[in-house]
TrEMBL record:
It is a multi-pass membrane protein. It comes from Pontibacter virosus. One of its GO terms (biological process) is metal ion transport. Keywords: Cell membrane, Ion transport, Membrane, Transmembrane, Transmembrane helix, Transport. GO terms for cellular component: plasma membrane. This is Potassium uptake TrkH family protein. The keyword Ion transport applies. The chain crosses the membrane at residues 20-39, 51-73, 85-104, 124-144, 156-176, 188-207, 219-240, 274-294, 306-326, 338-359, 380-403, 409-426, 438-458, 464-482, 503-523, 561-580. GO terms for molecular function: monoatomic cation transmembrane transporter activity.
Length: 599
């Protein structure tokens, strides 16, 4: 009866209390994010930084109090705790740290991490706090939707604007004084370039991320890579939810087209599955990388080794190719950590075959269903992406081995040469890591790389390029035309002509964009030969990140061209596909046929 009486007593003030708590959380989230940005990016004096974090600790204490009031005003308190278990766990950690820091004058978190030799515990805790603040702010934006209900953006426009917003925010953060190791701040064009490269998961760099950026700057890069890698699908769903009250039928249709889902309603829980799957694969990859660095690779501390492992795991799965080593994975002695190279290559493959294929082949539900019915085959999309990827990787490995055996592979043993060839064949598709000197490769090898980069990864993945399915459909369409067949067929299925038209449209769009941008680069950066510029341009458009070493030497205009190319390569072909998929104009008419000479 006491619980019932308490609920009755609180019932009258519940709506007012929730409104007050929501507004307070929203306001304090904005304030705390501003304080964090100032503390990480601008504040120089330790006393000022400490004062800022004391203020943030006070705000966190208020969040804990608000959470307790939310429990109180939730009349089904057990269900509320089960539903908000993660938030409750964070609040408990914050409360424990607040009590120990200000009550016992000794932080439990810092003491724990110092005991296991992780001196970066202060910075790590601050980063966690920062991410938590941003998460709270996003939750409040989703719940309040202040003044956003009237905005009616199309899904494709929303998708484009989400990446523009991410790049601009990233550039602004990277320009702050505390983000770089040298005095002053980063030039806008360079900050914009690095933000675009990370957000578009490309990997081209005008500076060395490992030595030029501070820990805070490297964390910003890591966040941009993570958000940009998931952005190909989750940004579309997230911002559609943000701008509207739920995901509408148009967004479901767009997601259905991209994911080749079994049903239209299958996409409802897609966001949660993608996030859980991504973090799980990255976490496993980070653990394996941590254990396979090799004894020769030395780190400043255990915390530094953990951060390097996480950074490269996220960069690999998101197919970003950014590394904290001066020459990438070609830096000594990392270039000899061949087991680690294989793990990175595996992460790249997982990130490049696409989420639809991973869900169909590797998700626990699909694996259980296939064990119960072993005769059940993979879906057609999975078969195409896996088969095409395997063929391209095999051809790339064999081609690289034969072309470079007496060049860059000359100093390696047979097994090492095979691993290096396999790694470069995998990473060239869209990741951009390198374990060999790209500038020393033969011209035929670079031509093969341009071909592999242009094709890229698979649909619904973290990679770029025209996609493996586009390439396969074009080949099948050409083969059907040569054989005089009316329909394009694969796997006892007929591919609609509209799909072939989309494939040729994406190919034509990509080819024209690359030729146009290459033409501009020959004007703005004529000091480099056209072949190197072509390699750089295709690498940027396909969001690969491999370079012959000319990126930092590009003019500001040339950097601008590469920035636009990275952006279009990341969202352009997808946007075109979405636009064609959701187009509603009628086609219930047909003009008289005519024939034109072709070829």
């Amino acid at each position: 009866m006491r619980t019932e009486e308490l609920n009755r007593a609180l019932y009258g003030s519940k709506l007012r209390a929730y409104a007050l708590m929501r507004r307070t959380t929203y306001l304090l989230s904005l304030v705390s994010v501003g304080l964090l940005i100032y503390a990480h990016g601008i504040a120089q004096k330790p006393e000022m930084v400490q004062l800022l974090f004391n203020a943030i600790d006070a705000i966190l204490s208020i969040f804990v109090i608000i959470y307790l009031f939310r429990i109180l005003y939730s009349f089904e308190r057990k269900k509320f705790l089960r539903r908000t278990w993660f938030e409750g766990l964070l609040m408990a950690i914050i409360l424990l740290n607040e009590v120990s820091t200000y009550g016992l004058q000794e932080s439990v978190i810092y003491t724990f991490f110092d005991s296991i030799d992780i001196p970066l515990s202060v910075e790590v805790y601050r980063v966690v706090v920062s991410l938590f603040m941003l998460l709270l702010l996003v939750i409040e934006l989703l719940e309040t939707r202040v003044h956003l209900k009237t905005l009616q953006f199309k899904p494709t426009l929303t998708f484009l604007l989400s990446f523009v917003f991410l790049i601009l925010i990233g550039a602004g953060l990277l320009m702050m004084p505390n983000m770089i190791t040298s005095p002053g701040s980063m030039r806008f064009i360079d900050a914009l370039f690095m933000a675009a490269s990370a957000s578009c998961v490309t990997g081209l760099a005008v500076v060395d991320p490992g030595t030029y950026f501070t820990f805070s700057g490297q964390v910003v890069l890591l966040m941009l890579v993570q958000l940009g890698g998931l952005g190909i699908l989750t940004f579309a769903t997230f911002f559609a939810t943000l701008m509207r009250q739920g995901v509408g039928i148009k967004q479901h249709v767009a997601m259905y087209e991209i994911m080749e889902s079994e049903s239209l309603f299958y996409t409802k829980n897609l966001l949660r599955k993608l996030v859980v799957m991504t973090f799980s694969i990255e976490a496993i990859g980070a653990v394996i990388i941590f254990m396979t660095w090799g004894q020769e690779v030395q780190f400043e501390s255990l915390g530094s080794k953990i951060f390097f492992s996480v950074f490269h795991a996220v960069s690999a799965f998101c197919n970003a190719g950014l590394s904290l080593f001066p020459e990438g994975l070609y830096t000594e002695p990392v270039r000899f950590s061949y087991v680690m190279h294989l793990n990175v290559a595996l992460l790249i493959i997982f990130g490049g075959i696409g989420f639809p294929t991973i869900l169909d082949v590797l998700s626990p539900k699909s694996m259980r269903a296939r064990m119960e019915r072993p005769w059940r085959n993979w879906r057609l999309l999975s078969r195409i992406t896996i088969f095409t990827s395997a063929v391209l990787i095999t051809m790339g490995t064999m081609g690289f081995f034969l072309l470079e055996y007496y060049n860059t592979l000359a100093q390696l043993s047979f097994v090492e040469a095979v691993i290096a060839s396999f790694f470069q064949a995998v990473t060239t598709r869209t990741a951009g890591f390198n374990t060999l000197d790209i500038s020393a490769l033969n011209v035929p090898t670079l031509l093969m790389f341009i071909f592999l980069m242009f094709i890229g990864a698979s649909p619904g993945s973290t990679g770029g390029g025209i996609k493996t399915t586009t390439f396969t459909i074009i080949l099948l369409s050409v083969w059907a035309t040569i054989r005089g067949k009316r329909n394009v067929e694969i796997g006892n299925r007929t591919i609609p002509h509209s799909v072939s038209y989309k494939a040729f449209s994406v190919f034509t769009f990509a080819a024209m964009i690359n030729i146009f941008f290459l033409f501009i680069l020959t004007i703005t950066d004529s000091q480099f030969d056209i072949f190197r510029l072509a390699f750089e341009q295709v690498s940027a458009f396909a969001t690969v990140g491999l370079s012959t070493g000319i990126t930092a030497g590009l003019s500001d205009a040339g950097k601008g061209v590469i920035i636009v190319s990275m952006f279009i390569g990341r969202v352009g072909t997808l946007t075109l596909a979405l636009a064609l998929s959701t187009r509603a104009t009628t086609t219930a008419y047909k003009y008289p046929e005519t024939h034109l000479p072709v070829g």
